[in-house]
Amino acid sequence: MRSILFAFLIISYAQTKAQLSGLHIKKATGHIVLDGKMTEPDWQEADVAGHFKQMFPFDSSYAIAQTDVRMTYDDRFIYIFAIMYNNDSVRKYVTPSLRRDFRGPANDGISIVLDTYKDRTNGFMFGVNPFGVQREGLISNGGNNPDDLNLSWDNKWFSEARILPDRWVCEIAIPFKTIRFKEKLASWNINFYRIDSHHGAEQSTWSPIPRVYSPPTLAFNRELIWDKPLDHPGGNISLIPYMAGHNLDDFQNKLPTDRAPSIGGDAKIGIGPAMNLDLTVNPDFSQVEVDQQVTNLSRFEIFYPEKRQFFLENADLFGSFGYSNSRPFFSRRIGVTRDPSTGQNIQNKIYAGARLSGKIDNNWRIGLMSMQAAEEKTINLPSINYTVAAVQRKIFTRSNIGLMMINKQAFQDSSSKDFKLMPNRYNRLVAVDFNLGTKDNRWNGKAFYHHSFNEYKKDSAFSSTASITYSKPKILFDVLFQAVGANFNPEVGYVPRTRFNRFAPDFFYSWYPKSRIINNHGPGTDIDIIGNDIYGITDADYNLWYTVNFQNTATFFMRIRQDYGLAFFPFDPAFPAADSLAKKLPYKSHYYWNSVILNFQSNARKKFFFSFQSRLGQYYNGHRVNIDGNFSYRLQPHAVISVDYSINHISLPSAYNSSNLLLISPKFDFTFSRKLFWTTYIQYNNQINNVNINSRLQWRFRPVSDLFIVYTDNYFAEANSHGDFFYVGQPKLRALVVKLTYWLNL
Fold first, then answer.
1. How confident is the model at residue 422 (pLDDT cuts 50, 70, 90)?
2. What's the whole-model pTM score?
3. Domains of the chain with CATH codes
């Protein structure tokens, strides 16, 4: 009996060790046909990545719906063949639509995570769902948070998917030229993760990941071991020219109709397998999806994410410096400016630009960018040159230290191409950042010091931060210290406020019960205190909260909050849509107010999905009732009809303003096929007195080659004399754009 038990333990240990080892990949001996059929002999001889472990709803058992993945390669492509078993007869799979770059726990799909540098910091993600819809993204900062996966990145690769009675399969071909990797490296790091909508939105991964982390997390990847080190993939040049015609009417400024056609394009040039040079001439971003507006009650500028392709590859090398409220570089400062007549961001013409970024070796990354933007006479903006240089050095297992330098320089007479330096109009910045990430991913943190320079040579022009986060399945703790000087001025960055010190600790504890209904739940508390050397404490909030995550992907959150605010300038907390002579909160007055915040999101796998957040209680010297939310109905797989809304009723004493702020945004998203998409987005926002209509038709006639037809319109949104709530007034700005882009590999 003992000998049998001993033998069983030996076998179990050997199996476990084999399951946790890497995946060997060897070169194909024959031609691989991308047809979703595993008929080639190379697939039969390939290693199998199986025995997937659950990540959600539990992380202590093997997946109910198992997956097998095989890999091979040739001189041009990496091939992946994945079999997703469903343990059932034919059943329906979930997808929001046929639009590229699906996201969230509501989608069936398989994703491949590649860490081609083995730095556990940056990587690539490629995914396919049962309907053959693709998604690809860039992973930065270790992939610890959902925001570390950028699905706006677009590139050329191929896949085929098939639905079979007891499984679905996909076959993928990723060109070596699509990704960046270190030459002569004997192995990469890799993981696969799958979402299965049938078994309680089960998430499973080949290399086990604790459920407290995000699936793309790179810290837990296993090795992909090549049969021989990879050579240089050869010349890698892509040209992406475009032609565009438009009809632009600016009613607000009463300008003549603009019908001038435009032509330009981008080029991507591989400088070795791990470095890329991006070039652009007269770029046009009219096809980029319009920003989703929000109601702003913060007194400070709202941050909007970058979506333009030229800025996305290695974007973290430039954009990860700093913290969420103190960024030395924000790429949307380049080529985008604000039209004060509509409140909308508009394109600021760029003459040309160059951007070199990537890996020198496994420890060093560099980035260098220079762009020249045109002047905008209507808003008195001169021509600006933006130059940014960044270098990053990996230290320890997952940590790095980086240096960035930024120069913003103004020029005269850009319209005649006779650029004349304006030596006294510049803004410069130097930034040093340290990013901490331990091997087991439990400790993550950041520390930085930034200093800005301009022609006034002011002191106190700095920003500094130190933060640390500890996380494991039941406990999360983080603490943040910040100090921003009064004269810190990163004009190419994002800093909504200056002259403050900040202290913000946060603690959360979670229980994981054995329940078919609740996945985890627990209490938390956080404090955020902001002050400066003149007024002492200026802002603070103290919070107790409780969160419940359900097995069906629904979530519930409740927060009890006390705020403190000091009016260090005369301030109208009602944020009315129009200027008013009503009384403002007096200078140096201070207020405490209490409120309750409730948040609920329904089961994302259902065709009808909704979410809402409500904030009720006091507000400065009055009261506020707020409801934000979304309704969405999925006509699978061809359409999603949704409505976003934000309603704020602010009631203040009679001498002050009271206001009703409304933002409502219906959206119609039709995907006729995997190549033809039509989206119409309407946004009514009485806070900025604007109605925006944006309708975009996209035909992807070849991989990464598109025809866009985009219509946009802006109107005033003030109420008429009859008090009609949804009154649409005079037009402000109207445009129709037709744009053709083509991706050409040389």
1. confident
2. 0.86
3. 20-226 (2.60.40.1190), 301-496 (2.40.160)
